[in-house]
Design a protein that fits this description.
about 140 residues, alpha+beta, two-stranded antiparallel sheet, 4 helices
């Protein structure tokens, strides 16, 4: 039986599937915690069978700070086009996305790299423009 909460995506990984998941940390309609928990359960299940790096070669989760349900909110939002370009590049050229650009068009010109979970975006050095994605890099959380 297939269920939406079944963490065993091993058949998908074995067939070479690629998936990009994303969720806004500020989503008040569907909270982000179950998405993170499901992703971690998928990683744990597949990793026991095939190895952690194999799972991450096929499935990536991108969390968007400040993004509400399917976009909006006070933080940068994911546009479908960069996600589709990243997915196409991953499938076609086997280049897994190390980040996805998110923007907020509320007049601030805000952009951020969204990092593959559990990584987070950190300012490269003090004094850089905090509205520019180029001022950040993806790092493992402390």
């Amino acid at each position: 039986m297939t269920r939406a909460d079944n963490p065993d995506v091993t058949p998908f990984v074995q067939r070479g599937g690629k998936a990009i998941l994303y969720h806004g940390w500020s989503d008040t309609v569907v909270t982000a915690t179950p998405t993170v928990e499901l992703y971690e359960a998928m990683e744990s299940t597949v990793s026991r069978k095939r190895g952690k790096s194999d799972f991450r070669d096929h499935v990536r989760l991108f969390m968007a700070p400040g993004m509400a349900h399917c976009g909006g909110g006070y933080g940068p939002s994911i546009d479908f086009h960069p996600v589709l370009v990243a997915l196409d590049d991953w499938v076609t050229h086997d280049r897994a996305p190390d980040s996805i650009l998110a923007t907020h068009d509320g007049g601030r010109g805000l952009s951020r790299p969204l990092c593959p979970y559990p990584q987070v975006a950190r300012l490269v050095e003090p004094g850089l423009d905090t509205n520019e994605a180029a001022s950040f890099r993806c790092v493992d959380p402390e």
